[in-house]
């Protein structure tokens, strides 16, 4: 029944999509285009490729209060690289405004598996979808090998009048192919030239071109600009006839849209000069033809190793000056990194039914982030603090401005440009899943799988192997131990939230009485007594509040409680993170006997078994474990307690 409803819902989505993206096909003469189409949106029809892409980005997102564009185009695909996405958006915004930025090649620079290719793919998919909307309607000369704008048909002597009439400038020249058609087939009557609506399609080589370099020694520039088609020379009798030219080059496929250059710095220098001239002048020079005007955005990407090699050659300075370079580093937020893993796992149908305990992906992400941080002389605890800061967590003793400097990488701007890639982690996780007979993976299973992956990888030098294995140990000690203990803490209490809430009220009552120097009425005996200093210190010591610092801590708690009261709010567990942690740990200490039963009872009786079973079930029902992972967690936490 559920599956049937899901299928029907999807069919509804398909119908809604076709309604929303139903494109109006149009075909007619240039005269009909000027009369029927042009008056409706002259500015839209005169857009450059940069302006078109910028409009597509705005169509797919919205600007926030800070002026930054948030694109849904990237929302479910790219995680933790918001700064890089913002810089890419800024490039298109500036280029669309007509600045010199539009005469620069956009180069994405970053480590392998960092999201560069995905970013470009999402842009291409966005352009394809946008071209089917009314706002993204594109028109080109029918039969033109570069799908050029029909506005190129407007003679230069009439372009000033066109600007006065429609408020836009016509930029560009007819391609040699269309110029010959105009002269030989239409007798110069450009009003009869056929025009049609065009749609962007990478598969159809329409306004999207992709070039991947092969052997630099055999690569031919004809792959980009085409060559003479010898089979047609005999038909037309002249190699200089545009009809005898093969217009299959990648730059022609990308005309009016986007040209993606993969690993651009591996190509020959003549390729680079051709591309940069195209970016700078919007022209391509082919033998026997005049300059061919092409309007397209060139977006290239490369890795750091190739870029550093490129930098070492002084003759490349001029080329670098004509590029806008945007770094696309690995994310340093383990929460965002975990989202990458989840996306990759869900994309593999065989892995969707495998249960992962709630900390598997976060633990893997912490390990990856540790490997990407600047390698200094810091202690393990300092590295752990930086990981938490990059994840947006509050860290005790860390001033807000200092945390901001860490997040902005002011001291270590190269952080995130090296280290463990998401692909390496996913390979390790995949191995753990395949080896799992029960289709259930615990965090310890993952950490062991990653250790095995490091040990068996011949590409990693021994010193780096030792360092990465140290990071696995640090992940377990500083992160997983805390996470799993918190889960088990909570699972131990049948009414955890209420118990902690009661403890909070008790702590506040005792603190207020202590600060006011008054007696407390015992709720059971109704006798007056002094505030329970032993209880207060037992709670505060859980978060390392010293005896000398207890007074200021208590005053801060009361101050926050009073502020909440004045605002008409309840001072609850979420009002003070430190105090909440202290109360949780205090309450856990009162329930440790249940955990001790797990290890001490070789043959537990029914009562003990019931207690253990209740804890396991609560882990399953409320904290994302399955039976296997819950038993593993209980056993692991019991071992930790035995070591304390």
From TrEMBL:
<dbReference type="Pfam" id="PF08298">
    <property type="entry name" value="AAA_PrkA"/>
</dbReference>
<keyword id="KW-0418">Kinase</keyword>
<feature type="domain" description="PrkA AAA">
    <location>
        <begin position="28"/>
        <end position="380"/>
    </location>
</feature>
<dbReference type="InterPro" id="IPR010650">
    <property type="entry name" value="PrkA_C"/>
</dbReference>
<dbReference type="InterPro" id="IPR013153">
    <property type="entry name" value="Prk_AAA"/>
</dbReference>
<keyword id="KW-0808">Transferase</keyword>
<dbReference type="GO" id="GO:0016301">
    <property type="term" value="F:kinase activity"/>
</dbReference>
<dbReference type="Pfam" id="PF06798">
    <property type="entry name" value="PrkA"/>
</dbReference>
<protein>
    <submittedName>
        <fullName>Serine protein kinase</fullName>
    </submittedName>
</protein>
<dbReference type="InterPro" id="IPR027417">
    <property type="entry name" value="P-loop_NTPase"/>
</dbReference>
């Amino acid at each position: 029944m559920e599956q049937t409803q899901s299928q029907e819902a999807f069919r509804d989505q398909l119908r809604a999509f076709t309604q929303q993206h139903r494109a109006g096909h149009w075909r007619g003469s240039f005269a009909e285009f000027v009369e029927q189409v042009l008056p409706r949106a002259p500015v839209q029809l005169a857009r450059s490729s940069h302006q078109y892409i910028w409009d597509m980005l705005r169509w797919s997102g919205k600007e926030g209060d800070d002026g930054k564009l948030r694109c849904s185009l990237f929302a479910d695909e790219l995680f933790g690289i918001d700064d890089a996405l913002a810089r890419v958006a800024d490039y298109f915004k500036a280029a669309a405004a007509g600045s010199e930025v539009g005469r620069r090649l956009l180069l994405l620079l970053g480590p392998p598996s960092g999201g560069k290719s995905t970013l470009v793919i999402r842009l291409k998919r966005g352009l394809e979808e946008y071209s089917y909307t009314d706002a993204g309607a594109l028109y080109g000369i029918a039969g033109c090998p570069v799908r050029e704008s029909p506005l190129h048909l407007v003679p230069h002597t009439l372009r000033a009048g066109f600007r006065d009439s429609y408020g836009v400038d016509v930029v560009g020249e007819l391609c040699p192919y269309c110029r010959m058609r105009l002269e030989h087939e239409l007798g110069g009557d450009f009003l009869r030239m056929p025009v049609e609506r065009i749609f962007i399609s990478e598969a159809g080589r329409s306004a999207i071109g992709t070039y991947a370099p092969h052997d630099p020694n055999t690569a031919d520039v004809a792959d980009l600009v085409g060559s003479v088609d010898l089979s047609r020379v005999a038909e037309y009798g002249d190699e200089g006839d545009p009809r005898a030219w093969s217009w299959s080059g990648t730059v022609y496929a990308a005309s009016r849209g986007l040209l993606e250059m993969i690993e651009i710095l591996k190509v020959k220098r003549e390729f680079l000069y051709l591309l940069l001239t195209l970016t700078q002048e919007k022209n391509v020079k082919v033998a026997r033809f005049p300059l061919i005007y092409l309007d397209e955005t060139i977006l290239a990407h490369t890795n750091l190793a190739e870029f550093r090699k490129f930098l070492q050659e002084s003759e490349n300075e001029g080329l670098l000056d004509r590029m806008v370079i945007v770094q696309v580093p690995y994310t340093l937020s383990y929460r965002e990194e975990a989202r990458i893993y989840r996306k990759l796992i869900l994309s593999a149908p065989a892995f969707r039914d495998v249960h992962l305990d709630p900390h598997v992906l976060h633990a893997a992400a912490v390990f990856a982030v540790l490997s990407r941080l600047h390698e200094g002389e810091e202690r393990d605890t300092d590295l752990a603090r930086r990981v938490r800061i990059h994840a947006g967590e509050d860290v005790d003793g860390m001033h807000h401005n200092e945390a901001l400097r860490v997040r902005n990488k002011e001291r270590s701007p190269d952080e995130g440009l090296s280290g463990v890639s998401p692909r390496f982690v996913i390979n390790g996780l995949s191995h753990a899943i395949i080896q799992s007979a029960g289709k259930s993976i615990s965090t310890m299973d993952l950490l062991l799988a990653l250790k095995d992956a490091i040990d068996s990888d011949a590409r990693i030098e021994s010193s780096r192997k030792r360092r990465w294995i140290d990071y696995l140990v640090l992940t377990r000690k500083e992160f997983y131990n805390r996470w799993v203990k918190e889960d088990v803490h909570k699972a131990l209490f049948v009414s955890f939230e209420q118990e902690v809430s009661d403890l909070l009220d008790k702590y506040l009552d005792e603190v207020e009485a202590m600060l006011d120097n008054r007696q407390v009425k015992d709720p059971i005996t109704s006798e007056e007594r002094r505030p329970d200093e032993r209880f207060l210190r037992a709670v505060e010591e859980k978060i390392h509040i010293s005896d000398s610092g207890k007074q200021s801590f208590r005053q801060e708690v009361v101050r926050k409680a009073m502020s909440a009261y004045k605002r008409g709010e309840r001072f609850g567990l979420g009002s003070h993170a430190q105090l909440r942690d202290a109360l949780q740990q205090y309450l856990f200490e009162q329930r440790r006997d249940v955990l001790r039963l797990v290890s001490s009872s070789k043959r537990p009786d029914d009562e003990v078994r019931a207690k253990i079973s209740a804890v396991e079930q609560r882990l399953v029902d409320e904290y994302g474990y399955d039976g296997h992972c819950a038993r593993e967690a209980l056993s692991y936490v019991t071992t930790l307690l035995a070591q304390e």
